[in-house]
Amino acid sequence: MTPQTVMELGRQALEMTMLVSAPLLLAALVTGLIISVFQAATQINESTLSFIPRLIAMFITLIFAGPWMLQLMIDYIRRLLESIPGLIG
């Protein structure tokens, strides 16, 4: 296995990690931003107020984006496992 192959596998793994985590992180970011604006407008300084809506938003996002995320991971793992004989020999 050449260093280029190792770098390519690492790049693909990082790309896959970003693709799979992006929907959940974006949902948490948008929800947190909305709650922060609400807290600033109403001057409510409760740090636990944003936790439950953020959790609910991430759960709803997981329901809708979960099948896509799972299919992405299955395809990546399948390609990775099928490439093992070519990497060894």
- How many β-strand runs? 0
| Beta-strand fraction estimate | under 5%
Number of helices: 3
Helix content: over 70%
> What do the pLDDT scores average to?
91
Low-confidence stretches: none
What's the main sheet like?
Answer: none
Radius of gyration: 19 Å
The number of domains: 1
User: What's the end-to-end separation, in Å?
Assistant: 9 Å
Question: Can you write the helix and strand succession as a string?
Answer: HHH
Structural class: mainly alpha
Q: Please tell me what the overall shape is.
A: elongated
Structural summary, described in words:
With 89 residues, this protein is mainly α. It has one domain (3-88). It is 87% helix and 0% strand. The chain is built from three helices and no strands. It has helices spanning 3-42, 51-82, 84-88. Helix 1 (3-42) runs antiparallel to helix 2. The radius of gyration is 19 Å and the shape is elongated. The chain starts with a helix and ends with a helix. The relative contact order is 0.12.
Feature tags:
89 residues; 3 helices; mainly alpha
List the helices and strands and how they pair.
Blueprint: H1 3-42, H2 51-82, H3 84-88
Helix pairs in contact: 1-2
Task: Summarize this entry quickly.
With 89 residues, the protein is mainly alpha-helical. It has one domain (3-88).
